[in-house]
């Protein structure tokens, strides 16, 4: 619980904020004009940055890119929040949902001096201005939208929909932080965004910070009107009151009237937030979900831009979304409009002779790290403290011999996570769509309830105001909250169904892109990794049926670059514990961990597991019969818990029935050991690859995911034609766990037959064994067909 | 415009509906009891289906699966809608958002007789009852949730979030249809669902049918309470009024009171829908978006189930979500509770001596195709009429020689689609997140405006009440609407950004699973294919930057089975026209078409294009230098527009500078020709594969997507080690189009060097040519680095 200023101070500050002096208005307006000027400069100019002479066609960029429409609104808000920070000392960050208004946010960082600190070539002088303008959306430059390169941002302005999930994630366990989240009315149409307003139902005013959403309605998106922009304002108000907010509305285009009204509205919002937090933190909270303020800001799209062009209305319409004036180089009239437009901001008042922002403009910026563009919360690696982790060995399953124990592997992980919660009450959270118990992670509830700010009843279990386990039936919220939590420097895990992990696949992709780009920027400190745990897997959704059977997320993560993507397939509890420990310590990766939650055979002692995971892949001597031979007759490889069991079972059948066949069993925990080192940093050396897989013996590879993944991973290894991969081939239904392996041709019997079909040398008895396997499979078919008639116990599934 | 009954008739019907007679109540209640009984039977029983003797442990299934909690609510609604249909003749279908309540919907189809019609073994007698119970969630049986096997459904109850998008899609251009869409309060937490309430902002009461959403609040999901279930009811009302609905609330658990109240509420909703439609269709509409009714139904979770078990409250809590009584075989007390519970429905009144539903129960069902389980709208292939398609050759770009024309390929497709709109005003729609013009498909606006029911202003262009082009900034809505439109038998296309197609990737996966399963059911008629067009591609988002650069959806579609998945990469306008024509005629596939919207070189005349597309892949003699040699020195293969241009350019460089090298150029339009015929029905024969790629010569393959895709596709073809694939390797930024190919090592110069490095035979001059390529790439690097300094025109990108 963080202390907040006393009520009197807050109320005095709120009142002062609500009534800016004439000097303050002048400063706000100067900063805003400077920002708008720089925004337009980025879109249009490659020379003559301060219009110290008349604009000429050659001053104009050859290709005009960027988004003007949303920018003046974004910068107006930025200016006013900056003033708020200066007056109150409030820590704040700024997330731009309409991040395509990138130039406004870049300009803000530039005016605050942060941009030049980070990128010295973009200095606060005429040369720097030129570079600022030229780099924008240009080859070798920066993207047109808010991106990893933008100081102060934890939110890419590309794919829309995630500004509120990032915002809510950023303030969890961050009691002093206020995150300003601007939501555009275009983005507001997306499903993920609409599903994220409910974040306040999970935010605790005592130990969490606050999100101030500002819904910026400017009526239009790229090519037409928006639903919220064109709805009756009473409906808009009703909608957000329904979401639980106190709606504050402000709108217009008159100046300085809008400055006065927006300042008053922002002050009111801040005052309400402080009052909510003060009440909660002073013990005066009635326990009801606060009605957090939300601002609806209505201002014209492209505000202060050219009203009409060629007789057509531009400002206030979708025509100002991107570049409101086209063909400026060739159209003298457009060139003249641009010059008038830019001069309307009176740049001569805003920049000094050297080209630097004048003191009035610079003076709006808060000090040091309070500048939103310099906030360490938006460069969360700076604030990251390693987790206080227990020894994962303490949660081990005792495994005296391979297959000698049976356990729900994720239950042990749950116990580990419970103690991570206990020992890190300020920097670890688990995010899960309503399945923590189902995933056997329920031990965490011994350390923390679920967070919930709506009504709680006496009958509820493990749920309450102080809870920090995050359950909401939305993969988008879970994933996005964790991203926001990670990017502001804290640790976590997202656990979900394997098939439904595809719901948020695009978030996984986009977060990976962010992490990859961040690694190229020395000023971006590494952040905790995004840990994704898939525990209800394709192979064990036999009871739920085909729609629940899909290992697609592995395939998605495999498309990402080696500097961010990791995929782990621990075959049992002890390997899972070792992998989880590794992932919780790692930074700036996407760690995908796949293991089922059902009771399963256990293979390795904890020390064996740790050694196996350190290698990432290894020979399981005890399972094979090759006795260290350089070249066995066949290699049985496996990655994934179910297929590992089938592989060990196949090897056992071969040992018993074809003892002279030299069989090697290789288990792969870290999938990224398979590619060549030049394709992934985890890729094992050629020597090691040959040690495991030889360079000529056929390999029967049983894989948890789609077989094609292995084919692509081993590309470039010696003689890849010899890899025969069994995996999930989209054969699913409601059936038995074992039948899932039969339908997908990855059962122990299929693997034995594959081994016989591909072995380098066949001992006597191979033909008979193949016939025996076919017989077994035929019996299985009969069993399945007859199943409905007698409905016996599901056959036990053992070695 | 469809006629609707006159006002007097409607009002009389509404009044009659609102006041069910005692006999009607008795019938509703009997049907509901029968349904609940069958639901519980499916979850628990494998014998003694009608409790004609005392329940014994051996009557109980060995594994208890299924979801009771939502089921009584689902069946209550079903009963009342059935009565409405019988009384009014309304055509209706029923989509169960909480489709995990599968047994209730299966039981409904069974009570209506449809189930036995389709699956004769599940007959309306004791044997059939036994099979009905045993098949449920059992190996060899049916999934636990509403699935493809459930008659009357177009909506899988697995992955949550899409019930409203399917519902709204089903009623577009379907003026006589009423779709009942039950939304569970768990599903209501997902982003896609929250983003789909706005469907009414796009539904025209004249030419579209109506969706009646019924938000079923039972307070809990699998393991805890729901946000909407625990919100202040005033907030819930406010939320949906904000979305634009007229909210009708009904709740409680008293009987027959709930029957009376629900009947009255449903009648009121129906009356309002008819009034809205009548007003619109009679010309009395004021043009404002109607306030369509929405019912909020509050009933206890697991209603009519065991109140408490082992002293713990079950009904009304999350504990009744799945199986409220566990361990029934071994716990005599639980067995007794189950028997009391099942007998509470008085099965002896509901089923006759043979085990068939009695006349009172059967009598609730509407006649024939009006039964919701038998509606042809839910088996849309029955209603599908082929599109009236123009000759795609009429839209051709004139290409006198390869590379002899330059055009925006998708613009021609837009012209074709315009005429498809014009000639099929009742059965074709384009769905696009606000980018129809940006995608160069704007010609469609000559035939139809965008649909929009919110306020339209004089300044708006191509938008209005009668519009049928669907633009909403939500991939989830676009994708899901099209699915609903397809599954009810109509045709369409979804056009979106390539990178952001991943937003709805999970919908693509789930729809593919639906189509695949449907093909196994003879009674499911084939439906129009889901056509997905990606037009702002990874390679040409040079200006937008890395977050917009990702060819992930190809990878996702490749994981689907060959019986549903198709991927087309037309290299120019004429091949695009031929591919589009093929896709618009096809049935029950997912057709993914990838081609950029920017001006590009054109290669093939329309007849050449048609021939090339018919083969799916072929040798481009004019581009190569092998003159029909059996084995050239190198094969340059390509799939995708940009990489095709680079490949042709590389071949040209080789022809000019290394004329003695025998180079073959192969272009692949239909990616699925690459796998073996046993892996995909489009897979080319071994002979044809060898004709194109030889069986020994190295292949340099330039691919639009991730290189690994080609490695997995050619698996099993002769000597796959010889394939060197260049493709998108997650190297992106804001740059020039050509630099995108350089960064990803797929530029013409890289391809030339690859050719030289891998050719079977090297003519004199090869070393010099490699050095020349390296020089070209070095110049390019310098050019990019210096670019910010001079910012010249972007270099033209030509052959």
UniProtKB/TrEMBL annotation, chains A, B:
The keyword Transcription does not apply. Residues 597-798 form the Xylulose 5-phosphate/Fructose 6-phosphate phosphoketolase C-terminal domain. GO terms for biological process: carbohydrate metabolic process. Its cofactor is thiamine diphosphate. Pfam families: XFP, XFP_C, XFP_N. Keywords: Lyase, Thiamine pyrophosphate. GO terms for molecular function: aldehyde-lyase activity; magnesium ion binding. The keyword Cell membrane does not apply. InterPro entries: THDP-binding, Transketo_C/PFOR_II, Xul5P/Fru6P_PKetolase, Xul5P/Fru6P_PKetolase_C, Xul5P/Fru6P_PKetolase_CS, Xul5P/Fru6P_PKetolase_N, Xul5P/Fru6P_PKetolase_ThDP_BS. Residues 21-382 form the Xylulose 5-phosphate/Fructose 6-phosphate phosphoketolase N-terminal domain. Belongs to the XFP family. This is Phosphoketolase. It comes from Dactylosporangium siamense. The lineage of its organism: Bacteria, Bacillati, Actinomycetota, Actinomycetes, Micromonosporales.
